Amino acid sequence: MKDAEIKTAIEQGKTALGVELGSTRIKAVLIGPDHAPIASGAFDWENRLENGIWTYRLEDVWTGVQAAYREMALQVKEKYGTALKRPGAMGFSAMMHGYLAFDGDGEQLAEFRTWRNTVTEAEAAELTELFRFNIPQRWSIAHLYRAIRNGEEHVGRIAYLTTLAGYVHWKLTGERVLGVGEASGMFPIDSGTKDFDARMVHQFDGLLEQRGLPWRLGDILPKVLVAGDPAGVLTEEGARLLDPSGELEPGVPLCPPEGDAGTGMTATNSVSVRTGNVSAGTSIFAMAVLEKELSKVYPEIDMVTTPAGLPVAMVHCNTCTSDLDAWVKLFGQLLQAAGTELPKWKLYDLLYFQALEGEADCGGVLSYNYYSGEPVTGLEEGRPLLVRNPESRLNLPNFMRAQLYAAMATLKIGMDILFDQEHVVLSRLYGHGGLFKTKGVGQRLMAGALNVPVAVMETAGEGGPWGMALLAMYRKEREQDETLESYLEQKVFRDAAGDCVEPKPEDTAGFGRYIERYRTGLAVEQAAVESLR
């Protein structure tokens, strides 16, 4: 679209806004009627480790959301010469899972406990056995049960339990709702009813009866909605909270809030059966939309849903690029100390392309990128490690390849369960997130590691916020009985550009040798956890 056409679309409310609160960045993306991004804004933030809990403060949530929105709105003014007063629709997403509890007056009762915390092992195991359904440690219900078992004072006063996306949506609209994909990270979903599983809710209420609590689970959980459902409108208070300048008008319709897994599926057109995607940033997870239920419960595999409610097998790993980013930062400091400097993107490209020059098995160099615990490999805590034998061939290409391999190694362990034991078939995986920004590097190595073709769309860099904007536009523009799968396939991605990389046999073989050493060396990582306090 030409700038004049975009200006008209903005003024006529034919846009949609998506905002996603990721682990390290809050980003706002505005799209036009052709679904292409027309403006964006961002704010960097970091989680805090307070009293042994990974958390974010809620005042930082609004500082970041307002900053991202302000930058996006300013870009609209500067580029198109008009003010963004009323988007046609909007939606908010955030990192999945976590624990946000509020009392009847809307006051926060405990610190926000994020997905990164791995402190609920006993509770998750007990609930998994009770439900006969895998409950990961980071799910909201595991954190709630831990708080109950620990006798935390606030538990009896809970009136509303939600996630970060649900919290932001609630404050902007007054509606206590969640999209089904995000809800599936709080409590198991029945894909038939597209709601919280009634049998399991009843089972959990049985546990509550033993504790004498004044509420039942259904009293405090959000209402579950599917993609396209009305989810409220922006209130006057919400408009001022999002845009303190006063330009944003209330009344904008919102779509159901979603998690970063759901927006990743949407942004990569991976919402139909036999499709899948890999999101690789601070954390890494892969999603596979299933044709049938898994044959049994696997602690390494989460069962969630698409934003439309289809069952999805998810392999989630807590750490992906954090250690890699730390090493890149170190190399940048070395350049500065030497009196030179490279732009951040150029430094990343330089080091990523070095990885392609490395030996297929990294020459014996081994890296563990664990910043926190990793349930897939049974570690309660993490210690980043670089390990090698004296005869290992340590050079920059092998080092960088080992760093990239480490970012996807734990994912490989989980995905092997789906491929080898459940015989899940995927025609290809769609990649998005920071690991894929350097063209052709992360994509090629991921294809080799998983032995599956990996496609990256030109829009992959927009990621979750763009996917959230698409869900908002679907809420606004969907025709009667038009499914999300059809909408994306026919109206968004029909002419989408991108490329697909087939796995190279030498990469697959080399990664196979690397992962074999990696599995054996997990004992070294465990010893580091026990020894380095």
UniProtKB/TrEMBL annotation:
Residue ranges constituting the Carbohydrate kinase FGGY C-terminal domain according to the UniProt record: 277-474
Lipid metabolism is among the record's keywords: no
Domain (Carbohydrate kinase FGGY N-terminal) ranges: 16-241
Keywords, ordered alphabetically: Kinase, Transferase
Pfam families per UniProt: FGGY_C (PF02782), FGGY_N (PF00370)
Gene Ontology MF annotations: kinase activity
Matches recorded under InterPro entries: ATPase_NBD, FGGY_C, FGGY_Carb_Kinase, FGGY_N
CDD domains: ASKHA_NBD_FGGY_BaXK-like
Family: Belongs to the FGGY kinase family.
PANTHER family recorded: SUGAR KINASE (PTHR43095), XYLULOSE KINASE (PTHR43095:SF5)
Protein name, entry field: FGGY-family carbohydrate kinase
Gene source species: Neglectibacter timonensis
